[in-house]
Amino acid sequence: MPTYRPGPVSLILAVLVALFLLLPLLAVIPVSLTPSRMLAMPTGELSLRHYRSLIEDPRWLDAILLSIRIGIVSSVISTVLALCFSLGVWMFQPRFTAALVGFVLLPMVVPPVVSAITLYFLLTSISGMSSFFGYDTWLGVAMAHSVMTVPFATVLILVSLSQLDRRIDLAARGLGASVWERATRIIMPNIKFGIVTAALLSFVLSWEEIGVTLFITSVNAITLPRLMWMGLRDNIDPAIAALSVILIIITVLMLAARSVVVKARGS
Amino acid sequence: MRGTLSDRMGAALLMAPLLLFLLLAYAWPFLGVVKWSVTLPTPGLGQYGALATDALVQSVFIRTLRIALIVTVVSVAAAYAITMVWVRGSPAQRIVAEFCILVPFWISVLTRAFGWVALLSNRGLINTWLQSIGFISEPLALVRNEFGVIVGMTHFLIPFAVFPLASAMRSLDERVLLAARGLGSSRMRTFWTVFVPMTRSGIIGSAMIVFVFSLGFFVTPAVLGGGRSVMIAELIYLRIFQSPDWGLGAAISVVLVLFVGALMAVLFRYVRPKQLI
After folding, report:
1. Of A74, A194, A224, B47, which one has the fewest beta carbons inside 10 Å?
2. Smallest CA–CA separation between A10 and chain B, in Å?
3. What is the pTM of this model?
Protein backbone atom coordinates (compact mmCIF):
# COMPACT_ATOMS: atom_id res chain seq x y z
CA MET A 1 0.00 0.00 0.00
CA PRO A 2 1.62 3.27 -1.05
CA THR A 3 2.44 5.68 1.71
CA TYR A 4 2.45 8.68 -0.61
CA ARG A 5 -1.21 9.45 -1.37
CA PRO A 6 -2.59 11.91 -3.92
CA GLY A 7 -3.51 15.22 -2.28
CA PRO A 8 -6.65 17.32 -2.83
CA VAL A 9 -5.22 19.10 -5.90
CA SER A 10 -4.45 15.80 -7.69
CA LEU A 11 -7.88 14.47 -6.76
CA ILE A 12 -9.69 17.48 -8.25
CA LEU A 13 -7.61 17.32 -11.43
CA ALA A 14 -8.18 13.56 -11.70
CA VAL A 15 -11.94 14.04 -11.38
CA LEU A 16 -11.85 16.59 -14.22
CA VAL A 17 -9.88 14.17 -16.40
CA ALA A 18 -12.29 11.35 -15.55
CA LEU A 19 -15.25 13.52 -16.58
CA PHE A 20 -13.48 14.42 -19.81
CA LEU A 21 -12.93 10.71 -20.52
CA LEU A 22 -16.53 9.68 -19.83
CA LEU A 23 -18.42 12.68 -21.24
CA PRO A 24 -18.41 11.74 -24.96
CA LEU A 25 -19.50 8.21 -24.07
CA LEU A 26 -22.47 9.55 -22.13
CA ALA A 27 -23.33 12.16 -24.77
CA VAL A 28 -24.35 9.51 -27.32
CA ILE A 29 -27.18 8.28 -25.08
CA PRO A 30 -29.55 11.28 -25.46
CA VAL A 31 -28.69 11.60 -29.16
CA SER A 32 -29.63 7.95 -29.74
CA LEU A 33 -33.12 8.63 -28.35
CA THR A 34 -33.93 11.57 -30.61
CA PRO A 35 -37.09 11.24 -32.73
CA SER A 36 -35.44 13.40 -35.43
CA ARG A 37 -33.99 11.95 -38.62
CA MET A 38 -30.85 14.02 -38.20
CA LEU A 39 -28.30 14.36 -35.45
CA ALA A 40 -29.99 16.44 -32.73
CA MET A 41 -30.76 16.50 -29.06
CA PRO A 42 -34.25 15.19 -28.28
CA THR A 43 -36.66 17.97 -27.34
CA GLY A 44 -39.54 16.57 -25.34
CA GLU A 45 -40.45 13.13 -26.60
CA LEU A 46 -38.03 10.24 -26.90
CA SER A 47 -38.01 7.55 -29.56
CA LEU A 48 -36.44 4.15 -30.12
CA ARG A 49 -36.70 4.41 -33.91
CA HIS A 50 -32.92 4.45 -34.40
CA TYR A 51 -32.53 1.25 -32.40
CA ARG A 52 -35.27 -0.31 -34.50
CA SER A 53 -33.58 0.73 -37.75
CA LEU A 54 -30.45 -1.18 -36.66
CA ILE A 55 -32.49 -4.39 -36.75
CA GLU A 56 -34.77 -3.58 -39.65
CA ASP A 57 -32.28 -2.04 -42.05
CA PRO A 58 -30.49 -4.99 -43.72
CA ARG A 59 -27.36 -2.91 -44.29
CA TRP A 60 -26.59 -2.83 -40.57
CA LEU A 61 -27.29 -6.54 -40.10
CA ASP A 62 -25.16 -7.49 -43.13
CA ALA A 63 -22.29 -5.35 -41.85
CA ILE A 64 -22.49 -6.90 -38.38
CA LEU A 65 -22.46 -10.44 -39.79
CA LEU A 66 -19.57 -9.62 -42.12
CA SER A 67 -17.55 -8.09 -39.28
CA ILE A 68 -18.12 -11.19 -37.15
CA ARG A 69 -17.03 -13.49 -39.98
CA ILE A 70 -13.90 -11.43 -40.73
CA GLY A 71 -13.15 -11.16 -37.01
CA ILE A 72 -13.32 -14.94 -36.47
CA VAL A 73 -11.25 -15.83 -39.53
CA SER A 74 -8.56 -13.21 -38.88
CA SER A 75 -8.46 -14.05 -35.17
CA VAL A 76 -7.90 -17.76 -35.92
CA ILE A 77 -5.16 -16.96 -38.46
CA SER A 78 -3.31 -14.55 -36.23
CA THR A 79 -3.63 -16.67 -33.07
CA VAL A 80 -2.34 -19.83 -34.78
CA LEU A 81 0.57 -18.02 -36.45
CA ALA A 82 1.45 -16.17 -33.23
CA LEU A 83 1.23 -19.36 -31.15
CA CYS A 84 3.55 -21.37 -33.42
CA PHE A 85 6.03 -18.52 -33.63
CA SER A 86 6.05 -17.95 -29.87
CA LEU A 87 6.46 -21.68 -29.15
CA GLY A 88 9.44 -21.71 -31.50
CA VAL A 89 10.98 -18.73 -29.71
CA TRP A 90 10.37 -20.14 -26.22
CA MET A 91 11.34 -23.77 -26.80
CA PHE A 92 14.43 -23.29 -28.94
CA GLN A 93 15.60 -19.75 -28.11
CA PRO A 94 17.15 -19.36 -31.56
CA ARG A 95 19.79 -16.79 -32.38
CA PHE A 96 18.52 -13.40 -33.59
CA THR A 97 15.37 -13.82 -31.48
CA ALA A 98 15.23 -10.08 -30.70
CA ALA A 99 15.47 -9.13 -34.37
CA LEU A 100 12.82 -11.69 -35.40
CA VAL A 101 10.39 -10.57 -32.68
CA GLY A 102 11.05 -6.96 -33.65
CA PHE A 103 10.17 -7.76 -37.26
CA VAL A 104 6.92 -9.45 -36.19
CA LEU A 105 5.96 -6.40 -34.11
CA LEU A 106 6.40 -3.96 -37.03
CA PRO A 107 2.69 -3.68 -38.00
CA MET A 108 2.04 -2.57 -34.41
CA VAL A 109 4.58 0.27 -34.37
CA VAL A 110 4.51 1.51 -37.96
CA PRO A 111 1.94 4.34 -38.31
CA PRO A 112 -1.37 2.68 -39.24
CA VAL A 113 -1.79 4.81 -42.33
CA VAL A 114 1.48 3.44 -43.72
CA SER A 115 0.33 -0.12 -43.01
CA ALA A 116 -2.90 0.82 -44.76
CA ILE A 117 -1.24 1.98 -47.97
CA THR A 118 1.04 -1.09 -47.81
CA LEU A 119 -1.92 -3.47 -47.57
CA TYR A 120 -3.70 -1.48 -50.28
CA PHE A 121 -0.70 -2.14 -52.53
CA LEU A 122 -0.78 -5.85 -51.61
CA LEU A 123 -4.48 -6.38 -52.23
CA THR A 124 -4.65 -4.38 -55.45
CA SER A 125 -1.69 -6.44 -56.72
CA ILE A 126 -3.45 -9.70 -55.82
CA SER A 127 -6.71 -8.52 -57.38
CA GLY A 128 -5.18 -9.00 -60.84
CA MET A 129 -4.60 -12.68 -60.11
CA SER A 130 -7.65 -13.67 -58.14
CA SER A 131 -11.07 -12.09 -57.94
CA PHE A 132 -12.12 -13.33 -54.50
CA PHE A 133 -8.98 -12.67 -52.52
CA GLY A 134 -7.90 -9.15 -53.41
CA TYR A 135 -9.08 -5.56 -52.99
CA ASP A 136 -12.62 -5.11 -51.60
CA THR A 137 -13.17 -8.82 -50.79
CA TRP A 138 -13.92 -10.20 -47.35
CA LEU A 139 -10.99 -12.65 -47.51
CA GLY A 140 -8.66 -9.81 -48.39
CA VAL A 141 -9.92 -7.83 -45.41
CA ALA A 142 -9.49 -10.87 -43.14
CA MET A 143 -5.89 -11.29 -44.31
CA ALA A 144 -5.12 -7.59 -43.82
CA HIS A 145 -6.64 -7.70 -40.35
CA SER A 146 -4.47 -10.72 -39.51
CA VAL A 147 -1.37 -8.72 -40.43
CA MET A 148 -2.50 -5.91 -38.14
CA THR A 149 -3.50 -8.08 -35.16
CA VAL A 150 -0.75 -10.73 -35.20
CA PRO A 151 1.79 -8.53 -33.31
CA PHE A 152 -0.66 -8.06 -30.44
CA ALA A 153 -1.40 -11.80 -30.27
CA THR A 154 2.34 -12.54 -30.31
CA VAL A 155 3.04 -10.11 -27.46
CA LEU A 156 0.28 -11.62 -25.29
CA ILE A 157 1.42 -15.22 -25.89
CA LEU A 158 5.10 -14.37 -25.37
CA VAL A 159 4.22 -12.64 -22.09
CA SER A 160 2.30 -15.65 -20.79
CA LEU A 161 5.14 -17.97 -21.88
CA SER A 162 7.63 -15.82 -19.99
CA GLN A 163 5.72 -16.60 -16.79
CA LEU A 164 5.92 -20.35 -17.39
CA ASP A 165 8.37 -22.45 -15.35
CA ARG A 166 10.96 -23.91 -17.75
CA ARG A 167 11.59 -26.87 -15.45
CA ILE A 168 8.29 -28.57 -16.30
CA ASP A 169 9.28 -28.53 -19.96
CA LEU A 170 12.77 -29.79 -19.11
CA ALA A 171 11.23 -32.63 -17.08
CA ALA A 172 8.97 -33.63 -19.98
CA ARG A 173 11.92 -33.52 -22.31
CA GLY A 174 14.08 -35.58 -19.96
CA LEU A 175 11.32 -38.18 -19.82
CA GLY A 176 11.46 -38.46 -23.59
CA ALA A 177 8.53 -36.34 -24.77
CA SER A 178 8.69 -35.27 -28.41
CA VAL A 179 8.54 -31.64 -29.49
CA TRP A 180 4.89 -32.09 -30.48
CA GLU A 181 3.99 -33.65 -27.11
CA ARG A 182 5.83 -30.96 -25.17
CA ALA A 183 4.05 -28.22 -27.11
CA THR A 184 0.53 -29.64 -27.01
CA ARG A 185 0.45 -31.48 -23.68
CA ILE A 186 2.84 -29.54 -21.46
CA ILE A 187 3.18 -25.95 -22.66
CA MET A 188 -0.16 -25.12 -24.27
CA PRO A 189 -2.36 -26.25 -21.36
CA ASN A 190 -0.31 -23.97 -19.12
CA ILE A 191 -0.73 -20.88 -21.26
CA LYS A 192 -4.31 -21.43 -22.38
CA PHE A 193 -5.48 -18.24 -20.66
CA GLY A 194 -2.91 -16.29 -22.70
CA ILE A 195 -3.97 -18.02 -25.94
CA VAL A 196 -7.65 -17.30 -25.34
CA THR A 197 -6.86 -13.67 -24.48
CA ALA A 198 -4.81 -13.35 -27.68
CA ALA A 199 -7.69 -14.74 -29.76
CA LEU A 200 -10.20 -12.43 -28.10
CA LEU A 201 -8.00 -9.36 -28.49
CA SER A 202 -7.41 -10.20 -32.17
CA PHE A 203 -11.16 -10.50 -32.69
CA VAL A 204 -11.87 -7.19 -30.95
CA LEU A 205 -9.13 -5.37 -32.88
CA SER A 206 -10.49 -6.73 -36.17
CA TRP A 207 -14.08 -5.95 -35.18
CA GLU A 208 -13.28 -2.28 -34.67
CA GLU A 209 -10.56 -1.86 -37.33
CA ILE A 210 -11.21 1.13 -39.60
CA GLY A 211 -7.90 2.79 -40.61
CA VAL A 212 -6.75 -0.08 -42.84
CA THR A 213 -10.25 -1.24 -43.82
CA LEU A 214 -10.97 2.18 -45.29
CA PHE A 215 -8.08 1.78 -47.74
CA ILE A 216 -8.88 -1.77 -48.86
CA THR A 217 -12.67 -1.78 -49.30
CA SER A 218 -15.05 0.21 -51.46
CA VAL A 219 -18.53 -1.22 -52.05
CA ASN A 220 -18.55 -4.99 -51.43
CA ALA A 221 -16.77 -5.72 -48.16
CA ILE A 222 -18.59 -3.23 -45.91
CA THR A 223 -17.67 -4.02 -42.31
CA LEU A 224 -19.52 -2.44 -39.41
CA PRO A 225 -16.92 0.32 -38.78
CA ARG A 226 -16.86 0.99 -42.53
CA LEU A 227 -20.63 1.47 -42.53
CA MET A 228 -20.40 3.71 -39.46
CA TRP A 229 -17.75 5.73 -41.25
CA MET A 230 -19.99 6.25 -44.27
CA GLY A 231 -22.78 7.45 -41.99
CA LEU A 232 -20.43 9.79 -40.12
CA ARG A 233 -18.86 11.69 -42.95
CA ASP A 234 -21.79 13.11 -44.87
CA ASN A 235 -25.22 13.33 -43.29
CA ILE A 236 -24.81 12.07 -39.76
CA ASP A 237 -27.20 9.16 -39.19
CA PRO A 238 -28.46 8.96 -35.55
CA ALA A 239 -28.55 5.16 -35.94
CA ILE A 240 -24.80 5.45 -35.28
CA ALA A 241 -25.63 6.85 -31.86
CA ALA A 242 -27.89 3.87 -31.12
CA LEU A 243 -25.18 1.48 -32.28
CA SER A 244 -22.57 3.33 -30.18
CA VAL A 245 -24.73 3.00 -27.07
CA ILE A 246 -25.00 -0.76 -27.64
CA LEU A 247 -21.24 -1.11 -28.23
CA ILE A 248 -20.45 0.90 -25.10
CA ILE A 249 -22.78 -1.28 -23.00
CA ILE A 250 -21.16 -4.45 -24.39
CA THR A 251 -17.69 -3.06 -23.56
CA VAL A 252 -18.68 -2.23 -19.98
CA LEU A 253 -20.19 -5.69 -19.50
CA MET A 254 -17.10 -7.41 -20.96
CA LEU A 255 -14.80 -5.42 -18.68
CA ALA A 256 -16.95 -6.30 -15.66
CA ALA A 257 -16.89 -9.99 -16.66
CA ARG A 258 -13.13 -9.83 -17.13
CA SER A 259 -12.54 -8.38 -13.67
CA VAL A 260 -14.73 -11.14 -12.20
CA VAL A 261 -12.69 -13.79 -14.04
CA VAL A 262 -9.39 -12.21 -12.97
CA LYS A 263 -10.58 -12.09 -9.35
CA ALA A 264 -11.71 -15.72 -9.48
CA ARG A 265 -8.36 -16.83 -10.91
CA GLY A 266 -6.47 -14.77 -8.35
CA SER A 267 -8.16 -16.34 -5.31
CA MET B 1 20.96 -26.88 -25.15
CA ARG B 2 20.63 -24.89 -28.36
CA GLY B 3 22.14 -25.89 -31.62
CA THR B 4 21.36 -29.55 -32.28
CA LEU B 5 20.11 -30.15 -35.77
CA SER B 6 16.60 -31.24 -34.78
CA ASP B 7 16.28 -28.23 -32.49
CA ARG B 8 17.09 -25.87 -35.28
CA MET B 9 14.67 -27.70 -37.57
CA GLY B 10 11.93 -27.49 -34.98
CA ALA B 11 12.45 -23.79 -34.38
CA ALA B 12 12.51 -23.09 -38.10
CA LEU B 13 9.32 -25.07 -38.72
CA LEU B 14 7.44 -23.33 -35.92
CA MET B 15 8.61 -19.82 -36.68
CA ALA B 16 8.54 -19.97 -40.47
CA PRO B 17 4.79 -19.59 -41.12
CA LEU B 18 4.44 -16.22 -39.38
CA LEU B 19 7.73 -14.90 -40.74
CA LEU B 20 6.79 -15.95 -44.28
CA PHE B 21 3.30 -14.50 -43.89
CA LEU B 22 4.65 -11.10 -42.84
CA LEU B 23 7.39 -11.14 -45.47
CA LEU B 24 4.83 -11.72 -48.21
CA ALA B 25 1.93 -9.68 -46.84
CA TYR B 26 3.81 -6.79 -45.23
CA ALA B 27 7.52 -6.41 -46.08
CA TRP B 28 7.17 -7.09 -49.80
CA PRO B 29 4.21 -4.73 -50.36
CA PHE B 30 5.97 -2.05 -48.32
CA LEU B 31 8.84 -2.25 -50.80
CA GLY B 32 6.17 -1.89 -53.46
CA VAL B 33 5.03 1.37 -51.87
CA VAL B 34 8.65 2.57 -51.82
CA LYS B 35 8.80 1.69 -55.51
CA TRP B 36 5.66 3.76 -56.19
CA SER B 37 7.31 6.73 -54.54
CA VAL B 38 10.23 6.68 -56.97
CA THR B 39 8.46 5.56 -60.17
CA LEU B 40 5.07 7.31 -60.23
CA PRO B 41 4.32 9.29 -62.27
CA THR B 42 7.90 9.34 -63.66
CA PRO B 43 10.99 7.50 -62.39
CA GLY B 44 13.25 9.48 -60.10
CA LEU B 45 13.20 11.36 -56.84
CA GLY B 46 10.79 13.98 -58.18
CA GLN B 47 8.13 13.22 -55.55
CA TYR B 48 10.58 13.77 -52.71
CA GLY B 49 11.62 17.04 -54.31
CA ALA B 50 7.94 17.99 -54.51
CA LEU B 51 7.59 17.26 -50.77
CA ALA B 52 10.26 19.84 -50.04
CA THR B 53 8.66 22.55 -52.17
CA ASP B 54 4.90 21.91 -52.22
CA ALA B 55 3.24 24.56 -50.03
CA LEU B 56 0.18 22.41 -49.27
CA VAL B 57 2.24 19.42 -48.16
CA GLN B 58 4.39 21.64 -45.98
CA SER B 59 1.44 23.34 -44.33
CA VAL B 60 -0.01 19.89 -43.56
CA PHE B 61 3.31 18.75 -42.08
CA ILE B 62 3.53 21.84 -39.90
CA ARG B 63 -0.09 21.52 -38.78
CA THR B 64 0.49 17.84 -37.92
CA LEU B 65 3.56 18.66 -35.84
CA ARG B 66 1.75 21.51 -34.07
CA ILE B 67 -1.31 19.40 -33.25
CA ALA B 68 0.87 16.46 -32.16
CA LEU B 69 2.84 18.69 -29.79
CA ILE B 70 -0.25 20.25 -28.20
CA VAL B 71 -1.94 16.85 -27.87
CA THR B 72 1.20 15.37 -26.30
CA VAL B 73 1.51 18.05 -23.62
CA VAL B 74 -2.19 18.00 -22.72
CA SER B 75 -2.52 14.19 -22.77
CA VAL B 76 0.54 13.53 -20.63
CA ALA B 77 -0.50 16.16 -18.06
CA ALA B 78 -4.06 14.81 -17.89
CA ALA B 79 -2.82 11.21 -17.75
CA TYR B 80 -0.44 12.14 -14.93
CA ALA B 81 -3.32 13.39 -12.78
CA ILE B 82 -5.51 10.34 -13.25
CA THR B 83 -2.61 7.86 -13.03
CA MET B 84 -1.66 9.37 -9.68
CA VAL B 85 -5.08 8.38 -8.33
CA TRP B 86 -5.13 5.02 -10.14
CA VAL B 87 -1.76 3.94 -8.73
CA ARG B 88 -1.60 5.70 -5.38
CA GLY B 89 -5.20 6.43 -4.37
CA SER B 90 -7.39 4.62 -1.85
CA PRO B 91 -8.85 1.27 -3.00
CA ALA B 92 -12.20 2.87 -3.91
CA GLN B 93 -10.50 5.70 -5.82
CA ARG B 94 -8.43 3.16 -7.71
CA ILE B 95 -11.47 1.23 -8.92
CA VAL B 96 -13.17 4.40 -10.19
CA ALA B 97 -9.99 5.61 -11.89
CA GLU B 98 -9.42 2.21 -13.51
CA PHE B 99 -12.98 2.21 -14.85
CA CYS B 100 -12.54 5.71 -16.32
CA ILE B 101 -9.27 4.69 -18.02
CA LEU B 102 -10.17 1.22 -19.30
CA VAL B 103 -13.70 1.80 -20.60
CA PRO B 104 -12.66 4.49 -23.11
CA PHE B 105 -9.52 2.48 -23.91
CA TRP B 106 -11.59 -0.49 -25.11
CA ILE B 107 -14.17 1.52 -27.04
CA SER B 108 -13.42 1.91 -30.72
CA VAL B 109 -11.89 5.07 -32.10
CA LEU B 110 -14.95 5.66 -34.31
CA THR B 111 -17.42 5.48 -31.44
CA ARG B 112 -15.31 7.88 -29.40
CA ALA B 113 -14.95 10.34 -32.27
CA PHE B 114 -18.71 10.13 -32.76
CA GLY B 115 -19.23 10.85 -29.06
CA TRP B 116 -17.37 14.12 -29.55
CA VAL B 117 -19.48 14.94 -32.60
CA ALA B 118 -22.58 14.39 -30.43
CA LEU B 119 -21.15 16.75 -27.79
CA LEU B 120 -19.58 19.47 -29.91
CA SER B 121 -21.53 19.78 -33.16
CA ASN B 122 -23.88 22.68 -33.90
CA ARG B 123 -26.89 20.68 -32.80
CA GLY B 124 -24.96 18.72 -30.18
CA LEU B 125 -25.23 18.63 -26.41
CA ILE B 126 -23.08 21.65 -25.54
CA ASN B 127 -24.46 24.06 -28.13
CA THR B 128 -28.07 23.01 -27.49
CA TRP B 129 -27.61 23.53 -23.76
CA LEU B 130 -25.82 26.89 -24.06
CA GLN B 131 -28.53 28.14 -26.43
CA SER B 132 -31.37 26.92 -24.21
CA ILE B 133 -30.06 28.87 -21.23
CA GLY B 134 -29.66 31.90 -23.49
CA PHE B 135 -25.90 32.12 -23.06
CA ILE B 136 -25.25 32.20 -26.80
CA SER B 137 -27.54 32.89 -29.76
CA GLU B 138 -25.44 31.29 -32.52
CA PRO B 139 -23.87 27.84 -32.05
CA LEU B 140 -20.14 27.89 -31.27
CA ALA B 141 -17.82 26.30 -33.85
CA LEU B 142 -16.41 23.53 -31.68
CA VAL B 143 -15.95 20.86 -34.32
CA ARG B 144 -14.80 20.65 -37.95
CA ASN B 145 -11.77 22.65 -36.93
CA GLU B 146 -8.45 22.19 -35.16
CA PHE B 147 -10.01 22.55 -31.72
CA GLY B 148 -12.24 19.51 -32.30
CA VAL B 149 -9.31 17.49 -33.63
CA ILE B 150 -7.17 18.29 -30.59
CA VAL B 151 -9.98 17.46 -28.14
CA GLY B 152 -10.77 14.15 -29.86
CA MET B 153 -7.13 13.06 -30.16
CA THR B 154 -6.37 13.97 -26.55
CA HIS B 155 -9.35 11.89 -25.48
CA PHE B 156 -8.15 8.94 -27.53
CA LEU B 157 -4.54 9.10 -26.35
CA ILE B 158 -4.88 9.69 -22.58
CA PRO B 159 -5.27 5.95 -21.79
CA PHE B 160 -2.14 5.18 -23.83
CA ALA B 161 -0.24 7.86 -21.91
CA VAL B 162 -1.38 6.31 -18.61
CA PHE B 163 0.43 2.95 -18.89
CA PRO B 164 4.10 4.11 -18.95
CA LEU B 165 3.34 6.63 -16.20
CA ALA B 166 1.67 3.96 -14.07
CA SER B 167 4.66 1.65 -14.41
CA ALA B 168 7.03 4.47 -13.38
CA MET B 169 4.85 5.48 -10.41
CA ARG B 170 4.53 1.88 -9.20
CA SER B 171 8.21 1.08 -9.24
CA LEU B 172 9.68 4.09 -7.46
CA ASP B 173 11.33 3.94 -4.07
CA GLU B 174 8.82 4.87 -1.35
CA ARG B 175 11.54 5.65 1.19
CA VAL B 176 12.77 8.68 -0.74
CA LEU B 177 9.29 10.21 -0.55
CA LEU B 178 9.02 9.44 3.16
CA ALA B 179 12.43 10.96 3.74
CA ALA B 180 11.46 14.16 1.91
CA ARG B 181 8.28 14.49 3.97
CA GLY B 182 10.14 13.57 7.16
CA LEU B 183 12.69 16.32 6.52
CA GLY B 184 9.82 18.81 6.48
CA SER B 185 9.24 19.30 2.76
CA SER B 186 5.68 20.41 1.95
CA ARG B 187 3.29 18.30 -0.14
CA MET B 188 3.69 20.52 -3.20
CA ARG B 189 7.44 20.69 -2.89
CA THR B 190 7.80 16.91 -2.46
CA PHE B 191 5.66 16.43 -5.55
CA TRP B 192 7.57 18.82 -7.83
CA THR B 193 11.11 18.25 -6.61
CA VAL B 194 11.04 14.55 -5.68
CA PHE B 195 8.06 12.69 -7.11
CA VAL B 196 7.99 14.16 -10.65
CA PRO B 197 11.76 13.78 -11.26
CA MET B 198 11.53 10.14 -10.10
CA THR B 199 8.89 9.40 -12.75
CA ARG B 200 10.94 11.00 -15.53
CA SER B 201 11.34 7.81 -17.58
CA GLY B 202 7.55 7.34 -17.50
CA ILE B 203 6.98 10.91 -18.65
CA ILE B 204 9.42 10.54 -21.55
CA GLY B 205 7.97 7.17 -22.56
CA SER B 206 4.41 8.38 -22.43
CA ALA B 207 5.17 11.60 -24.32
CA MET B 208 6.94 9.65 -27.05
CA ILE B 209 4.10 7.16 -27.42
CA VAL B 210 1.50 9.92 -27.67
CA PHE B 211 3.61 11.96 -30.08
CA VAL B 212 4.34 9.03 -32.39
CA PHE B 213 0.67 7.99 -32.37
CA SER B 214 -0.46 11.54 -33.12
CA LEU B 215 1.75 11.83 -36.18
CA GLY B 216 0.02 9.00 -38.03
CA PHE B 217 -3.49 9.60 -36.73
CA PHE B 218 -6.22 9.24 -39.28
CA VAL B 219 -9.74 8.58 -38.03
CA THR B 220 -10.18 11.28 -35.38
CA PRO B 221 -8.81 14.16 -37.49
CA ALA B 222 -10.87 13.01 -40.46
CA VAL B 223 -14.12 12.87 -38.46
CA LEU B 224 -13.63 15.89 -36.18
CA GLY B 225 -11.62 18.01 -38.62
CA GLY B 226 -14.33 17.66 -41.26
CA GLY B 227 -11.85 17.93 -44.13
CA ARG B 228 -10.71 21.40 -43.03
CA SER B 229 -7.93 20.54 -40.67
CA VAL B 230 -6.14 17.85 -42.67
CA MET B 231 -3.24 15.97 -41.08
CA ILE B 232 -0.53 13.87 -42.77
CA ALA B 233 -2.44 10.58 -42.65
CA GLU B 234 -5.55 12.09 -44.22
CA LEU B 235 -3.39 13.75 -46.87
CA ILE B 236 -2.03 10.31 -47.82
CA TYR B 237 -5.61 9.01 -48.07
CA LEU B 238 -6.64 11.96 -50.26
CA ARG B 239 -3.63 11.48 -52.56
CA ILE B 240 -4.48 7.81 -53.04
CA PHE B 241 -8.25 8.03 -53.44
CA GLN B 242 -9.39 11.54 -54.33
CA SER B 243 -6.81 13.27 -56.47
CA PRO B 244 -4.93 10.16 -57.48
CA ASP B 245 -1.27 10.94 -57.06
CA TRP B 246 0.00 7.61 -55.78
CA GLY B 247 3.63 8.64 -56.06
CA LEU B 248 3.18 11.59 -53.73
CA GLY B 249 1.06 9.57 -51.26
CA ALA B 250 3.74 6.86 -51.22
CA ALA B 251 6.55 9.39 -50.77
CA ILE B 252 4.77 10.99 -47.80
CA SER B 253 4.35 7.50 -46.28
CA VAL B 254 8.04 6.71 -46.65
CA VAL B 255 9.02 10.02 -45.04
CA LEU B 256 6.56 9.37 -42.20
CA VAL B 257 8.02 5.91 -41.52
CA LEU B 258 11.58 7.27 -41.52
CA PHE B 259 10.61 10.09 -39.17
CA VAL B 260 8.81 7.75 -36.74
CA GLY B 261 11.70 5.26 -36.93
CA ALA B 262 14.18 8.00 -36.01
CA LEU B 263 11.98 9.08 -33.09
CA MET B 264 11.74 5.49 -31.81
CA ALA B 265 15.51 5.09 -32.04
CA VAL B 266 15.90 8.20 -29.88
CA LEU B 267 13.26 6.91 -27.46
CA PHE B 268 15.00 3.59 -26.93
CA ARG B 269 18.26 5.34 -26.08
CA TYR B 270 16.52 6.79 -23.03
CA VAL B 271 13.87 4.24 -22.07
CA ARG B 272 13.95 0.45 -22.01
CA PRO B 273 10.97 -1.10 -23.86
CA LYS B 274 9.82 -2.87 -20.68
CA GLN B 275 9.17 0.47 -19.01
CA LEU B 276 6.52 1.30 -21.58
CA ILE B 277 4.02 -1.36 -20.54
Report:
1. A194
2. 6
3. 0.90
